[in-house]
Amino acid sequence: MRMDDQRPKKYGCVHDGCNALFDRPSRLSQHILVHLNHRPHKCVEEGCSRAYTSKSHLERHINTAHRSYDADAVYSCPMCLKQYANEQNLKRHYKIAHINCSKRYYCNECKLAFKKKHQLSSHMFRHTGIKPFSCSLCPKTFVTITEKKKHVRNHKIYTCEHCSKTFTRWSDVLKHKRNDHASKEYICHHCGKVFKQRNHIIRHVKVHMDSRHVNTYFCPFENCLRVYSRNSNLKQHIQIKHEGLRFDCYICGAKLSTKGKLNEHVLRHSNPTPYKAPKTLMTGRKKRKDAFDPRTSTALKLAGLCRSDTGTNDEDVNTHDVDDSTNVQA
User: Fold this and answer.
1) Is the pLDDT of residue 121 over 80?
2) Is residue 237 a part of any domain in this protein?
3) How far is CA 229 from the centre of its chain?
4) Do 107 and 124 meet the contact criterion of CB atoms below 8 Å apart?
5) Domain with 232 in it
6) Average pLDDT value for residue range 229-250
7) Are 143 and 82 in contact (CB under 8 A)?
8) 177 by DSSP, 3-state: which?
9) From the centroid of its chain, how far is CA 215?
10) What domain count does the chain have?
11) Which site from 50, 61, 93, 136 is most exposed, i.e. has the minimal number of CB atoms within 10 Å?
12) CA 29/CA 16 separation, integer angstroms
């Protein structure tokens, strides 16, 4: 059956607010499944959970998503020469772009009609073999006006008004201005360091503040010596360590301490990475330069506490600082 053959659409959907019409009862029945959210045709490919209301839609999904096809085997529109990977997409394009539209331009060779002159010009390439659209800046020619417009953009030059550098894309000009000419809005009055974002300088200023004015947050639970420089970190510590808050993976049941770690864990199920053994001193890891230096947590430094102030021996402090190094954020 030709694309331009149409049947009268006399079967209407009775669902509230839906005015869809169909030429066959079978298509109406298939359409009603959409309102019922019933998709009986499920993809059987491993790892794919897609489902569809009709068998033809499922076949189209399998052909485009799970099967490779010859790149030369494409479906081309006879009117505007646009190409599609399957016949269903071509039919949908033909119906939207070329059916029931005012057609004023006719081909003298095959009597096809077009609503725009450039569509007829593109179509004539099939009969004459001559590309109708040419670039005024170079000798290149094109079959469609869309290809010509895309090519002409490559000839346009954008110039930066600050340094006269030239670019072929406007997005590159904006990126260049943002990186090279944007004013450094936030300047530290203590050391003169400049920042482009407000939250960066707020975090930096704490380095110059007197430790007596920096808030320190101690864990209120008995026998817990954790200290934090941010109240949000203390709350997270209490929820995880003392209240037992965990985020469960719905795939394998693993329990994660934060929502971010859960999201990262779930991604590993869909895109697993091969195991990579950590480096050791025997396999090439470099020895730490501060391996034998005593360690102190950042929170204790900000609080102005030292070993003698805490009343603990060296072994307790070192152990506590090693644990805190992974939890405290200055």
Assistant:
1) yes
2) yes
3) 33
4) yes
5) 214-271+294-324
6) 85
7) no
8) helix
9) 38
10) 1
11) 136
12) 16
Domain of residue 267, CATH code: 3.30.160.60
Distance CA 96, CA 248 (A): 47
With 0.85 as the threshold, say if the pTM is over it: no
Alpha helices (H) in the chain, listed in sequence order = 25-36, 55-65, 87-98, 117-123, 125-128, 145-152, 170-176, 198-205, 231-237, 259-270, 298-303, 307-310, 314-324
The alpha carbon dihedral of 248, 254, 256, 260 has a sign of negative
Query: pLDDT digit string (tens) for 262-280?
Result: 888 888 887 777 767 778 8
Q: Looking at this protein, which amino acid is placed at residue 8?
A: P
What are 83-108's pLDDT values in tens digits?
Answer: 777 777 888 787 777 765 566 778 88
- The proportion of the chain whose per-residue pLDDT surpasses 90, expressed as a percent, equals 1
The residue written with tokens 């954020």 in the block is 329
pLDDT in tens, 15-35: 777 878 888 888 888 788 777
Give the number of other Cβ atoms within 10 Å of residue 207's Cβ: 12
Summarize pLDDT for 305-322 with one digit per residue, the tens.
654 444 444 444 444 444
Instruction: Provide CB contacts within 8 A for 99, sequence distance 6+.
Output: 3, 4, 6
Residue 305 domain-assigned? yes
Q: What are the residues facing 45 on neighbouring strands?
A: none
- Inter-residue contact 53 to 41 (CB < 8 Å): yes
Looking up tokens 């725009």, which residue turns up?
Answer: 116
The answer to whether 304 and 229 are in contact (CB under 8 A) is no
* Nearest Cα residue to 93 out of 180, 3, 166: 3
**C-beta of residue 132 within 8 angstroms of C-beta of residue 148:** no
DSSP-derived pairing of the beta strands 217-218 and 227-228 = antiparallel
